[in-house]
Design brief:
The chain is mainly beta. It has four helices and 41 strands.
């Protein structure tokens, strides 16, 4: 199997020799202002009077600020001039960076706006986005984005998109307006919301992106190949002209008060509680931030979505708690999933066979039940040439779960043009006198070669009482990401006594080889007939134990057709082989699948329509084998969006299976409905209803959120869980009211 990986790497290097010259589009126009390092450059004008942030670009400041334009397409015709011009102007004063964008459009009535929620989805509407690299290291940055309705979205990017944190929040202001020849946007970003080295003369990295959704067009000021996104900050231009700016210490205190009334399922009375706590944020230095939390509460976080699990592994649920998501990129170890714009209906999360740090292990049981957190702190930022992250939290004892202290330490040093080397230490230490502990420590590296070839490695060791020998995990991978050809592959080995209480992983005593490769041709005939791109691809995983015995195989063979309107269709053939060492129960009313080895084939069709339309659908149909029998699985999602303020989504997931065992016919049914109504860009109503037909159980999570001032919220949350049978117990029900207020000093 190693021969296959070596051959794939050789193929990547061969592709590099022929494709490297074409991977980066050339900027248009030789008269564009460039910095000494050859990058496009924009100069910020000094503002004597701050502009009024109203989306109307008639301030005197904007009349004298020099515009930059000449945007270049990445999609659909890479390297061609943007079909509609865009002009961007920048200015600053002692407090803020100001950005004005004029997005010209010959058909202003055709602008697509589908959402005005905070941190809206940017892919299915017209948008203007900016990424700012305040340290000029060409690796990390902040993204600010808006649409013609003035919605706000902000993100924190680490490692050029290896980790993108959409839950990062900053105080900033934006207004947008539709005008006769397009739309305009005006932003004010306080310097104290950013982290940078005050007084240094280095240039900031900056790039701008515009999306024209009806044409499925993506444009950049500093060109970016279509294989990448705005997060490819190494391709950004420079921001010059800033002087006498300071980030400040930016002390923020955010207290909360919470009241709740909860009745458990089968209970008769409500239990009323009240609670208080706070979060504190302090800029220890302009580049280093301290976060402190006392009695944090996450009652406003969205409920987990139920899943149909037909595997032998525990389900993976993403982190949704804001405290753990902010600055999470510094703690990430490993490479990123293949470019998220091209995952072809395959789960785009990083390799969940091994997530070294998974914050859901803190303050939550495996079933998702909260464990009270007393408090803790986090220190993140830069010291000298090092990126550092330190996290420590203390939990209380709950039932059989002891009180624990959780600590994570992370350092990373930039090397070469776009690489880094780092180290990590993680610890769970029981603090109730039992002496239980778990420790994980190791090193990692990420290197970029030839522009598009990345190499990623890590090696870690664990320490747990009673487990000795085989307590390690090592992973190495390469990734070539090109416009026409992509190839990712590597190897991972995990010892029999590996134990990480702060991670998520599926197998121990295992070796894994993996390959993800494919082509992305755009033949003229297909483009003339509505298909923008073809994507034949293979994803192959091969598992053995440490003795070399095969324990699992999966082989996904897909062929995706991407349409000009953003939709896609994919037929696929999947081969599976699994060895289980204990019986596996797939349905509560069916007998367990006996331990043993099983091989089966699956056939799948997936379809996604144009998601910018008022009504769109996603459908996936799988049929073929399943363990010792057969399956027919259907997942269908229909979304109705009559207005950008309102949408409703209904999803049905149904699996009918028949195994070669007595009484093994069963059907799994899950229905999910989501709704959202956005009263304004600061007031939202969301609901999540989930019905499990097998259990005849209905769960509801309804949330109202009012952002009454920047980073200050009022939440009203209603939860209910009820069984729909005639003899069911009293439904479980709860209502929570939470008020937060950000105070800045």
């Amino acid at each position: 199997m190693r021969v296959i990986c070596v051959a794939a790497l050789a193929l990547s290097l061969a592709a590099a020799a022929t494709a490297a010259a074409n991977e980066r589009p050339k900027a248009l126009g030789d008269d564009a202002l460039r910095s000494p390092d050859g990058r496009l450059q924009v100069t910020a004008a000094r503002a004597t009077t701050p502009p009024k942030i109203d989306g109307t670009l008639d301030d005197e400041l904007w009349l004298r600020a020099e515009p930059v334009s000449g945007f270049v397409q990445a999609e659909p015709q890479e390297g061609k001039p943007a079909s509609e011009p865009t002009e961007v102007r920048l200015a600053y004063d002692a407090q803020n960076l100001y950005i004005a964008a004029y997005c010209y459009d010959r058909e202003p009535d055709a602008l697509v706006v589908n959402d005005i929620r905070k941190d809206f989805q940017n892919g299915e509407q017209d948008t203007f986005e900016v990424i700012i690299d305040t340290f000029g290291d060409r690796r990390n940055g902040y993204v600010f984005m808006t649409n013609p309705a003035g919605a706000r979205g902000d993100r924190q990017v680490s490692g050029e998109g290896r980790e993108t944190n959409a839950s990062w929040d900053a105080v900033w202001f934006v207004r947008a307006r539709r005008v006769a020849d397009g739309w305009t946007a005006e932003m004010a970003i306080p310097f104290k919301s950013l982290r940078f080295k005050s007084g240094e003369a280095h240039a900031w990295g900056i790039n701008f992106s515009r999306r024209i959704r009806r044409k499925n067009e993506v444009d950049y000021w500093s060109p970016v190949p279509r294989a990448y996104e705005l997060t490819r900050i190494s391709l950004a231009g420079n921001l010059a002209g800033l002087s006498a700016t300071t980030a400040g210490r930016n002390l923020r205190i955010k207290p909360y008060v919470l009241g709740s009334a909860v009745r458990p399922t089968g209970g008769e009375a409500y239990d009323g509680t009240a609670d208080v706590g706070f979060d504190l944020k302090y800029g220890v230095t302009p580049a280093l931030t301290l976060d402190v939390t006392f009695r944090p509460d996450f009652a406003q976080a969205e409920a987990d979505e139920q899943q149909v699990n037909l595997t032998q592994f525990s389900q993976f649920y993403p982190e949704k708690r804001d405290f753990f998501l902010e600055n999470s990129g510094i703690f990430y170890v490993g490479d990123a999933a293949r470019n998220n714009r091209r995952v072809d209906n395959i789960n785009p999360t990083p390799d969940t066979d091994m997530l070294l740090f998974f914050s859901r292990r803190i303050g939550l049981t495996p079933a998702g039940t909260p464990i009270p957190i007393v408090g803790g702190g986090r220190l993140t930022g830069r010291v000298g040439g090092l990126s550092i992250g330190a996290l420590s939290l203390q939990t209380r004892r709950t039932g059989a779960t002891p009180a624990n202290n959780y600590t994570v330490l992370r350092v990373r040093q930039n090397v070469f043009r776009a690489g880094d080397i780092g180290a990590i230490y993680m610890s769970r230490q029981a603090t109730d006198g039992s002496g239980g502990y778990n420790r994980v420590y190791g090193i990692d590296s990420y290197l970029r070669l030839f522009g598009n070839l990345d190499l990623s490695t890590f090696a870690v060791k664990t320490e747990t009482p009673g487990l000795h020998g085989g307590d390690y995990a090592v992973r190495a991978s390469y990734n070539w990401e090109g416009n026409f050809y992509h190839n990712k592959g590597g190897f991972m080995t995990v010892g029999r006594n590996f134990n990480n209480d702060l991670g998520y992983y599926r197998r121990i005593d295992t070796r894994k080889w993996f390959i993800d490769t494919g082509l992305r041709p755009r033949p003229k005939w297909f483009r003339e007939h509505g298909v923008k791109e073809l994507h034949p691809h293979i994803l192959w995983n091969y598992y053995t134990n440490q003795q070399g015995q095969v324990t699992g195989k999966s082989n996904h063979n897909g062929f995706t057709f991407f349409f000009h309107d953003g939709g896609s269709i994919q037929p696929a053939f999947n081969q599976r082989y699994e060895v289980i060492t204990r019986p596996l129960r797939l349905h509560p009313k069916a007998p367990a699948v006996p331990a043993g080895s099983y091989a089966w084939n699956e056939y799948n069709w997936s379809y996604k329509s144009n998601m910018s339309l008022p009504i769109f659908a996603e459908v996936s149909w799988t049929y073929g084998g399943l363990w010792s029998g057969t399956q027919r699985s259907l997942s269908a999602t229909v979304t109705l969006r009559p207005h950008y303020r309102f949408w409703i989504e209904t999803q049905m997931r149904r699996t009918a299976a028949k195994l070669d065992l007595p009484r093994t016919k069963f059907v799994r049914n899950l229905w999910t409905m989501r709704t959202n109504y956005s009263f304004t860009t600061n007031m939202f109503f969301d609901s999540l209803l989930q019905y499990d037909r097998d259990l005849d159980q209905l769960n509801a999570n309804v949330r109202f959120n009012f952002i009454h001032r920047p980073l200050s919220d009022l939440f009203i949350v209603f939860n209910e869980s009820r069984f729909m049978t005639s003899d069911a117990d009293t439904p479980g029900r709860g209502i929570i009211v939470k008020f937060t207020r950000m105070m800045t000093f």
